[in-house]
Amino acid sequence: MHVLVVGGGVSGLGSALVLARQGHQVTVVERDDTPMPSSADEAFDWDRRGAPQVRHSHAFLARLVGLLRRDYADVYAELLAEGATEMRFGDDLPPTIVDFQRLPEDDELVMLACRRTTFEWVLRRAAVAEGRVTFRTGVGVEGLLAQPAGPGAVPHVTGVRLADGTTISADLTVVAAGRRSALSEWLAAIGAAPVAEEVDDTGIVYFSRFYRLLPGHDYPPRTGPIGGDLGYLKYGVFVGDNHTFSVTLATPTVDGELRKLLADPVVFDECARQLVATAPWLDGRALPITEEVHVMAGLLNRWRDHVVAGAPVATGVLPVGDAVLCTNPLYGRGCSTAFWSAHLMADAVARHGDDPSALALAYDDALRAEIFPWYRAGVDQDAEARRVAAALLAGDDPDGDTSDPRTFMRSVFRDGLLPAMRSDAVVLRAFFRGLNLLATPDSLVSDADVSARVLAAWQDRDNRPPEPALGPKRRAELLSLLPA
User: Fold this and answer.
1) Is 135 helix (H, G, I), strand (E, B) or coil?
2) Cα–Cα distance between 150 and 300 in angstroms, integer?
3) Are 195 and 189 in contact (CB under 8 A)?
4) For residue 327, what are the contacts with CB-CB under 8 A and spacing of at least 6?
5) Residue 87: is its pLDDT beyond 80?
6) Across the strands, what pairs with 301?
7) Nearest Cα to 48, choosing from 5, 7, 14?
8) What is the pLDDT of residue 224?
9) Nearest Cα to Cα of residue 155 among 98, 111, 105, 195
10) CA 73 centroid distance within chain
11) Is the pLDDT of residue 50 over 80?
12) Per DSSP, what are the bridge partners of residue 141?
């Protein structure tokens, strides 16, 4: 089978790699003109105008690492050889956990510290080495080719039209064109039924800056929080490859004042120094490797259904990665769900490659079962975050209404889950399994033992000091600490 992959990001490269190893011939069309870098640092300077998010923080979760270690041991070894490092559960525990015993399941709870550009560079190098993958860069796709379809018939895609006027025919077209994908418009142009789309604003604007450790310095101990949520500001630190790391700050979209301030590199760094989790990283041990602060706005949660009323809107074409779903980048799931969806697609191809309709339906079923619950959980979490941020910006107490079930859940999270994670290895393990997409989104509450431990910590809240602040409690206090 000849498969055409539109887009050379994580989902596109993952699709190309897995399909080539299944024995298919693959052509990858990438709009950006991206000559192959010769090093990880050169890859960091890749001109990726079609994927501006590559220079923002990224997490490579255990779900993705497991796929790599199981199916691409050679690629995983290359990532480690190029400076990526493993972060294993149990290696950096809070000192207050004294009863930790490693379990066999902990072997799969491994994250990868790596910049996105390094990850894509190694993946692309591996795809090229397959021999079955051809890259065509510097030209975009403008539409789909399709067989003529009669009234009421489902169109069947047979390839694409390129911006230079040429066409490429394919037995299957995989669209991995990212969150700005025009697949819905392309499908409409060939007479397909409308793609059902669910859109929800994440409510945040995202600010990132990268740094490199100075010679003789090391990362701070990772035994404490790696991020925090102050309600009016969310933040985190992400370890990269080759002694790099990034800091991300996120403000509510409605906070125009803080958004403007954090776009300034000096203010950004000073803000990070006022936050518990990021302050040790900017204590003089590192220098910025991005002069500017990279900003991303217009961040949406989006789910696109290409199967409507039990039938695919078209056959011969499958979307992967952000062309199917976009989620809040603060949760760090984007690269992992992109690579995951590519493999769900390839599994469906292996089982139904000779039946286009069955292929589309099987892939949609897999997405719905495996990934959609994480999309839904993110939407619900963002809705609550927007409520809290709006209350704080208005000077109100988001926990003022004690009869509101959301107030109770916030209290359990703050005074139950967080302290339990610092003292109870069972709770910490369950939290990290969920964070790494190895358990279902509701696993913390559906596991009777874990939920009982969290509630026990919450019920004991009056017998211990208040939870330590993760940064200035009041927005006005943080603003007073920032340079004008």
Assistant:
1) strand
2) 36
3) no
4) 301, 333, 334, 337, 374, 375, 378
5) yes
6) 200
7) 7
8) 73
9) 195
10) 22
11) no
12) 162
Residue 52 predicted with pLDDT over 60: no
> What end-to-end distance do the CA atoms of the chain give, in Å?
60
Token look-up 């390094």 returns: 118
**What is the H or E stretch that residue 482 is in?**
none
Q: Is 63 helix (H, G, I), strand (E, B) or coil?
A: helix
- Kindly give, in sequence order, each residue whose CB lies less than 8 Å from that of residue 274, ignoring residues fewer than 6 positions away: 471, 472, 478, 481, 482
Whole-angstrom CA distances from 233 to 12, 141, 382, 386, 416 are 33, 38, 13, 11, 22
φ/ψ region of 25 (left if φ > 0, alpha if ψ in -120 to 50, else beta) reads: beta
Nearest to 251 by CA among 260, 242, 243: 260
- Residues 355-369 have pLDDT tens digits of 999 999 999 999 999
The CA distance from 438 to 430, in Å, is 9
Q: What angle do CA 325, 329, 330 make, to 5 degrees?
A: 140
Rounded-to-integer distance, Cα 129 and Cα 148, Å: 37
How many CB atoms neighbour CB 210 within 10 A?
Answer: 21
Tell me the pLDDT tens digit for each residue of 5-36: 999 999 999 999 999 999 999 999 999 887 88
Single out the residue of 367, 381, 353 nearest to residue 321, CA to CA. Answer: 367
State whether residue 198 is helix, strand or coil.
strand
Q: What is the pLDDT of residue 51?
A: 60
| pTM of the full structure | 0.93
Cα dihedral across residues 41, 45, 50, 52: positive or negative: positive
Which of 44, 59, 17 is closest to 118 using CA atoms? 44
> Domains (ranges, CATH) in the chain?
2-60+114-197+301-375 (3.50.50.60), 204-296 (3.30.70)
Q: Residues near 152 by Cβ (< 8 Å), separated by ≥ 6?
A: none
Collapse the DSSP code of 139 into the 3-class scheme (helix H, G, I; strand E, B; otherwise coil) and give the result: coil
- DSSP letters for 273-334: HTSTTTGGGGSSSEEES-SSPEEE---EEEEEESEETTEES-BSEEE-GGGTEE--GGG--H
Which pLDDT score is estimated for 55? 66
